[in-house]
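Reminder to self: tokens first, then the designed residues, so the page reads top to bottom the way the pipeline ran.
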């Protein structure tokens, strides 16, 4: 067990030594992969925009302006959020929304563009649409909530949804995130550098120390030959 630990320590130190000797090369690799990641996110991926509409769920729509809403009503509304999320993403809603907007992207394209989530510990739901077209994002988000509000009674036989905020046309892009792709590039560069260091360490079969000889040959060492360096001998005139 001790021998194994010593081997691991020696290998790790060897890798560190390789990193020190090639530090400029490894830093250059990381910079290069970071630049590639940034360029991929900035110039290759298309810009995307997101617009969000909000709806609120209560026990009864008529109670929204009343002060008689209880904690049980709020808890009931929060539990409905998971069901309503599935309805919002279903073809019962998507087919009508796409038909009203004249889009032919199908339910798969709809699911790729639309995300629905409930705000933590509230009865508010956010319906977000992401697209390359900022105006389409807002129109689609608003159409989704309009269709949902109009159809929820036929589906659930309750009328407990109201539009809290309609979506507005986004003025700034939501993606891609260049910083995220730059970080991916850095991680890729570090992996490449680690692989290079490990490969160099594994391919180096030279015996450098007495300990190396013991581990590899498994024979006792009875002596060592010193390393005599050539020295320039100067003679007096």
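Designed residues (237 positions):
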């Amino acid at each position: 067990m001790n021998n194994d630990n010593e081997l691991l320590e020696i290998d790790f130190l060897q890798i560190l030594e390789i990193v020190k000797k090639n530090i400029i090369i490894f830093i250059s690799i990381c910079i290069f992969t970071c630049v590639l990641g940034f360029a991929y996110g900035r110039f290759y991926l298309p810009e995307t925009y997101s617009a969000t509409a909000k709806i609120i769920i209560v026990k009864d729509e008529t109670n929204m302006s009343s002060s008689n809403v209880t904690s049980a009503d709020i808890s009931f509304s929060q539990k409905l959020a998971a069901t309503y999320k599935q309805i919002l993403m279903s073809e019962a809603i998507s087919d009508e929304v796409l038909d009203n907007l004249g889009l032919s992207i199908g339910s798969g394209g709809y699911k790729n563009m639309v995300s629905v989530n409930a705000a933590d510990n509230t009865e508010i739901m956010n319906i977000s649409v992401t697209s390359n077209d900022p105006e389409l994002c807002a129109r689609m988000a608003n159409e989704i909530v309009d269709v949902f509000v109009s159809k929820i009674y036929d589906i659930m036989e309750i009328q407990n949804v109201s539009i809290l905020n309609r979506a507005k046309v986004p003025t700034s892009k939501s993606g891609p995130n260049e910083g995220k792709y730059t970080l991916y590039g850095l991680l890729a560069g570090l992996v490449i550098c680690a692989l290079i260091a490990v490969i160099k360490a594994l391919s180096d079969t030279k015996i450098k120390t007495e300990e190396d000889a013991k581990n590899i040959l498994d024979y006792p060492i009875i002596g060592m030959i010193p390393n005599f360096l050539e020295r320039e001998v100067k003679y007096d005139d």
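The two ends are 62 Å apart (CA to CA).
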